[in-house]
Amino acid sequence: MKIPKGLCKKLACILGGMGMSNDTCSITVKRNLNARILGKKYETEHEITIQSLGRDGKSLNTAEITVLQKEVQRFVDAARKQKLKVTAIHNHWLFDDPRLMYIHLESVSEPVKFAKKLRKALDVLK
């Protein structure tokens, strides 16, 4: 089932980002890490997707969270405390400064509950 535009807007508000809704809800949350790749400024963000909303009110929720290398363990601990599944930790770039890492999360749950849990985990990055 499609994610209603109003629900996507609510999720984006909870997460502090901007949402777009077609069949899925794609939310981007900007994060200013003053990063550079090959000496050029690089904009960083978290990418969250809510999709496949079922009749039971649960959806597939995925996120790719951008963190500094030194923030990995703190964020993973916070995500696990919220019962979010951490499914990957990796880098994308070879010549980034500071070193950026990407943490993938997955869940099947009610979208608003997921957004609130993710928001709590993201709060450790402030």
- Averaging pLDDT over every residue, what do you get? 97
What share of the residues lie within helices?
25-40%
**How many domains comprise the coordinates?**
1
Low-confidence stretches: none
Q: What is the rounded distance between the termini?
A: 34 Å
Percent strand? over 45%
Number of distinct helices: 3
User: What structural class is derived from the secondary structure elements?
Assistant: alpha+beta
> What is the radius of gyration computed over CA atoms, rounded to a whole number of angstroms?
15 Å
Strands, count? 7
Pfam families: DUF1529
InterPro entries: Uncharacterised_LppY/LpqO (IPR011094)
Organism: Brevibacillus fluminis
Protein name: DUF1259 domain-containing protein
Summarize the structure.
The chain is of the alpha+beta class and 126 residues long. The chain is built from three helices and seven strands. Strands 1, 2, 3, 4, 5, 6 and 7 form a seven-stranded antiparallel β-sheet that branches.
Could you name the key traits of this structure?
126 residues; seven-stranded antiparallel β-sheet; 3 helices; Uncharacterised_LppY/LpqO
Explain how this protein is built:
- Helices cover 26% and strands 45% of the residues.
- Helix 1 (5-15) packs parallel to helix 3 and helix 2 (72-81) runs antiparallel to helix 3.
- The protein is built from three helices and seven strands.
- Strands 1, 2, 3, 4, 5, 6 and 7 form a seven-stranded antiparallel beta sheet that branches.
- It starts with a helix and ends with a helix.
- The chain is of the alpha+beta class and 126 residues long.
- Strand 1 (18-21) and strand 2 (25-37) form a beta hairpin.
